[in-house]
Amino acid sequence: MDLKKILAVSGRPGLYQMIAQSPRGIVSESLLDGKRVTLFSHERISTLEEISIFTTENDMRLKDVLRILFEKLEGKPAISHKSSANELRNFMEEMVPDYDAERVYNSDIQKLVNWYNLLLEKNLIDNEPDEEETQDSENQEEKPVVKEEVKTEKKPKPQPKSQASKAQKTTSAAPKPTQRKTSPRAK
Q1: Is 0.70 topped by the overall pTM?
Q2: Which CATH number fits domain 52-128: 3.40.50.300, 3.40.50.1980, 3.30.230.10, 1.10.10.1650?
Q3: What percent of the chain is predicted at pLDDT more than 90?
Q4: What angle do CA 26, 28, 34 make, to 5 degrees?
């Protein structure tokens, strides 16, 4: 599931899929109605890849939460985002038991459920890991952990040069006279 091109815009309903970047902003297509719009830099735009949910331990990436919903609901739609606050809280408790109930508001759960249903409808959610995630895990498995003992050698401290040796060097190196070159054009 690649959420890097799926955008949430503060103050606008639904989600947008990035089509291209223009000098004026981001050309995107609404997942709700399919209309193309330009999102400008003054708008608060977030990719779904950047968003996370508060949990009691650490924050959980939205991508992981959507994957959990997809697995537990077996690829079926979730409850309506217009459900009562108690139904939404119970649903969230069932799906992600360690979510932080104090910092995750009802409106956050509504967005999560709405986004999940919208992405599922557009076939943008799957259970398979992204190429980047599989490459990262393969790279971690391939690298054996080798502990090397670091030996530090104590280097002798440089001795300060005496004033006499500095004076000898400065007097022996007299500047050479420079020769003046004349150009053939200067007459």
Answers
A1: no
A2: 1.10.10.1650
A3: 57
A4: 165
What are the two backbone dihedrals, phi and then psi, of residue 38, each rounded to the nearest 5 degrees?
Answer: -100, 125
**What are the pLDDT digits (tens) for 103-155?**
999 999 999 999 999 999 999 887 776 555 545 545 555 554 444 444 444 55
Range list for CATH 2.30.30.730 in the chain: 1-50
- Work out the average pLDDT over 62-88: 93
| 126 C-beta neighbours (distance < 10 Å), count | 15
3-state SS record for 43-82: CCEEECCCCEECECCCCEEHHHHHHHHHHHCCCCCCCCCC
Radius of gyration for the alpha carbons in the chain, expressed in angstroms and rounded: 32
Q: What is the phi/psi pair of residue 165, to 5°?
A: -70, -35
Q: Which pair of tokens denotes residue 141?
A: 């498995």
Which CATH number, 3.60.120.10, 1.25.60.10, 2.60.40.1190, 2.30.30.730, labels domain 1-50? 2.30.30.730
Strands 36-40 and 25-30, how do they pair? Answer: antiparallel
